[in-house]
Design a protein that fits this description.
single chain; 458 residues; Beta-lactamase; 7-stranded antiparallel β-sheet; 11 helices; globular; Serine hydrolase domain-containing protein; hydrolase
């Protein structure tokens, strides 16, 4: 259930503008636009610029660089939802003739393919795409830099391949597909491949002097899916809402959630960055954010979403480097989250509950480890360790009476309720792990058996 979006307090709005102003001044960027989204709605936006009495607003276009990758990834995920491909498919199956056909679609989406970060030849972001008219020109003679699937290595060339894959399966330019399948349904009328007024010009600022140099604005050709798009803070606010919830005409909530999960588990509990499927993940001050950063000569952009806070932020600037745009966007979320934290929705009982599922809830034991099983909406289950540490997961109900793990250790594993001959519940089976109502219950088929003498004092 959604509630009316309340206007931010004046002190919060002032704090947001102050952060934007500091970012523009200290980052020495000709202009900076920021926006905050809550509950899927734009609730604040403002801008600062080097021109007196001028504030670029949420409808001014900026180049968004690698935020483009998320749009390209959605087109690929749509093909998967339609059954036209699997993420585990090798590229060769759908886009034959490249020198890297063994790479899987998932590896390209998640930057684990081992491909080079950039194209051979002149810097692709600052030169015409006509210099690289074919995929072979993008890949070069030695496109690989690392063993496939072994490590994360950001690859712009991988997204050129994904754009070509979309064109091959749809039979038309990827930009036309993007407009029809994503931009139009989401109402992103100011997101385009080429700039449309009003739009910002891109500049480089000298590192040691307060002078500027215009950057060239090139059509990047086959590299466009890696960073070509232009957009506005208003359009990207809608995009942030989509990344949080999905859209029935574009991509299902489950598929969008899959995109924003780490493709490989981050290293350790203190991880700071990771990557999903066309979506970056970043941890700032303990807050997990997803979205993407972007840069092209003359422009920096960032979009972050905090699912826990029901907040998103967009920051766009027209400078090549120097402005800490990702940090500014994270700070906009933090300012609102701390000053006006999200109100939890009122507790309400489930609209209906199967008595047999209610009977399953409560304590369960994996060996001597205590867990608790809770019933959620739509027959979903949630298993959590009682002591705060241990293996747990949410589980989605399946039509066959089983449940599938959604996260944690049991992600993708099947939970089954085992019953005795008379129909009574015997135990839970999760991927061969037996959970019983008592620690090492002698009446359940615990693997390895249970000592018949039971629990002993010594």
């Amino acid at each position: 259930m959604s509630f009316p979006v309340e206007e931010l307090l004046p002190a919060t709005r002032r704090a947001l503008l102050h952060r934007l102003a500091v970012g523009q001044a200290e980052g020495r960027t000709p202009s900076l636009v920021g926006a905050v989204v809550r509950g899927g709605h734009l609730i604040w936006s403002d801008g600062r610029s080097m021109i007196d009495d001028h504030r670029p607003d949420e409808n001014v276009q900026y180049r968004i660089g690698s935020l483009t990758k998320g749009f390209a990834a959605v087109l690929v995920m749509r093909l998967r939802e339609e059954g036209l491909l699997e993420l585990t498919d090798p590229l060769e199956r759908h886009l034959p003739g490249t020198s890297v056909g063994r790479l899987t679609i998932a590896q390209l989406l998640s930057h684990t393919s081992g491909l080079a970060s950039e194209t051979p030849g002149p810097w692709w972001e600052r030169t015409p795409g006509a210099l690289r008219p074919e995929l072979a020109d993008v890949l070069g003679e030695q496109p690989m830099r690392h063993p496939t699937g072994r490590r994360y290595h950001y690859s712009n060339t991988g997204y050129a391949l994904l754009g070509a894959l979309v064109e091959r399966l749809r039979g038309e330019p990827w930009g036309d597909v993007l407009r029809r399948e994503v931009l139009d349904p989401l109402g992103l009328t100011r997101t385009t491949l080429s700039p449309r007024p009003p739009h910002a010009g891109g500049f480089a600022v000298h590192p040691w002097a307060d002078v500027m140099l215009p950057e060239p604005l090139e059509d990047t050709g086959v590299m466009a899916p890696a960073g070509q798009l232009w957009s506005t803070a208003a359009d990207l606010s809608h995009w942030a809402a989509f990344l949080a919830t999905g859209h029935e005409q574009v991509l299902s909530p489950a598929a969008v959630a899959e995109m924003r999960r780490p493709a490989a588990q981050p290293d350790g509990p203190e991880w700071t960055s990771s990557y999903g499927l066309g979506v970056q993940l970043w941890r700032e001050d303990g807050r997990v954010l997803f979205g993407h950063t972007g840069s092209m000569p003359g422009f920096l952009a960032t979009l972050w979403v905090s699912e826990e806070d029901d907040l998103a932020a967009v920051v766009l600037s027209n400078v090549t480097s120097g402005a800490p745009v990702p940090v500014i966007a994270a700070d906009l979320i933090r300012i609102v989250a701390e000053r006006e934290p999200r109100l939890p929705e009122p507790w309400r009982p489930l609209p209906e509950a199967d008595p047999e599922l209610v009977a399953l809830t409560g304590p369960w034991y994996w060996g001597p480890s205590a867990h608790v099983l809770r019933l959620r909406a739509d027959r979903a289950l949630e298993l959590a360790p009682m002591g705060g540490s241990g293996r747990g997961s949410g589980f989605r109900a399946e039509p066959d009476g089983t449940w599938t793990g959604l996260d944690g250790y049991y992600a993708g594993e099947t939970l089954r309720v085992a019953r005795t001959a008379d129909g009574a519940v015997s135990h839970l089976d999760i991927g061969s792990f037996v959970l019983t109502r008592a620690p090492y219950d002698q009446g359940a088929p615990v693997p390895g058996g249970v000592d018949p003498r039971g629990w002993q004092p010594s």
